[in-house]
TrEMBL record:
It is an enzyme of class 1 (oxidoreductase). It holds the Pfam family Pro_dh. This is proline dehydrogenase. Binds 1 FAD per subunit. One of its GO terms (molecular function) is nucleotide binding. Its cofactor is FAD. PANTHER family: PROLINE DEHYDROGENASE 1, MITOCHONDRIAL (PTHR13914:SF0), PROLINE OXIDASE (PTHR13914). GO terms for biological process: L-proline catabolic process to L-glutamate. Its EC number is 1.5.5.2. Transmembrane segments: none annotated. It comes from Spongiactinospora rosea. FAD binds at residues 136, 165, 189-191, 203, 228-229. Pathway: Amino-acid degradation; L-proline degradation into L-glutamate; L-glutamate from L-proline: step 1/2.
Length: 306
């Protein structure tokens, strides 16, 4: 039940920090099951997946995997990936958008460096008429992520958006604070391990908070990305959006909820799929495992087969 599920999440998310487990994953590579959630290690892998999804009537966004970068060289390398990625992907003419993680751009080491990189990436995307969203990460970087979003918008860069996590106690206040900017907001439940002082702990409570945050965004934000695989939250959002004549889309992760995504597209609604690629897939992969206990059995079975 509820308690089992949250114990499971903290076990997986803590185990993922172990160097031994990371080394084991490295040996087995994407074949241990990560290829269900990650397009591949190269940009070409990502481009192939994008083509396939567009062929099914889906919208897409790309993220270059990587986070928790604490050196200037690491942050510069991440920025260079995006500088190559954006023109290469924009060429497909399919309206693919992008996401960046500010810890990938070194925000925990040097806030100004991350801001400079983000500004350059979002400006480059603007030249290609592309949109870049700042993903939201663990609670220690929420203030600075929102500050960088505001700084970019203050520079006149309107091709950017942010993410709010329903599990954080603060998120409704953050949403209300952002409304004067006419923001483009992705609403998610939240994927990190957070203490009770900061975040709701019970799944049923997060589900309720998610619906409230989505409804408020659909009513007042300029654009809302309803990012979830939760069918009942999706139905509720469709009803709210109809009532408010909202500008919105659904978003899902590559490898999760594909049948549901196809149904939504068949109903005439837009679904944008997150396509992650790159060599630093391990931490992303463990967050996907922590979201559903049966995913871990699936990986253990794959390891056993090799
Ligand atoms: P919930 O956990 O209730 O799942 C609903 C159903 O979906 C489950 O019953 C199951 O069937 C299926 N499902 C969900 N996850 C699965 C998985 N990993 N494997 C198999 N089935 C699964 N978080 C964050 O903190 N910052 C961010 O920037 C983002 N960005 C983001 C973008 C997009 C497009 C999505 C869809 C999600 C995120 N997230 C995120 C992750 C989000 O916070 C959350 O952890 C996951 O979306 C899982 O929660 P659901 O909303 O799907 O609901």
């Amino acid at each position: 039940g509820q308690i089992g599920q949250s114990v499971f999440r903290s076990l997986i998310l803590s185990a993922a920090k172990s160097p031994r487990i990371q080394a084991m994953a490295g040996r087995h590579g994407l074949k241990a099951g990560a290829d269900r959630f990650v397009a591949g290690e190269s940009l070409n892998d990502a481009l192939n997946v994008l083509d396939r999804l567009h062929g099914e009537g889906m919208r897409t966004y790309v993220i270059a995997l990587g986070e928790a970068v604490h050196t200037r060289e690491g942050a510069d390398a991440a920025a260079r990936i995006y500088e190559r990625l954006i023109p290469d992907v924009a060429r497909n003419g399919q309206g693919t958008t992008f996401s960046i993680k500010l810890t990938h751009l070194g925000i925990e080491a040097d806030r100004d460096l991350a801001l400079r990189h983000a500004r350059r990436i979002v400006s480059l995307a603007a030249e290609h008429s592309a949109f870049v969203r700042l993903d939201m990460e663990h609670s220690a970087v929420v203030d600075e992520t929102l500050a960088i979003y505001r700084a970019l918008r203050g520079d006149g860069l309107d091709n950017t958006g942010v993410v709010l996590q329903a599990y954080l106690h603060r998120s409704m206040d953050d949403l209300i604070g952002l409304l004067p900017l006419e923001p483009n907001i992705r609403v998610v439940k939240g994927a990190y391990l957070e203490p009770p002082g900061v975040a709701l702990q019970r799944k049923t409570h997060v589900d309720v908070a998610y619906r409230q945050l989505v409804r408020t965004a659909l009513t007042y934000a300029k654009f809302t990305a309803v990012a979830t695989h939760d069918a009942s939250a999706i139905r509720a959002a469709m009803a709210d959006a109809r009532k408010n004549d909202s500008d919105f889309e659904f978003q899902m992760l590559y490898g999760v909820g594909h049948a549901l995504a196809r149904q939504i597209v068949a109903h005439g609604h837009a679904v944008r799929i997150c396509v992650p690629f790159g060599q630093d897939w391990f931490v992303y992969f463990t967050r996907r495992l922590a979201e559903r206990p049966s995913n871990v059995l699936f990986v253990v079975r794959n390891l056993g087969r090799r």
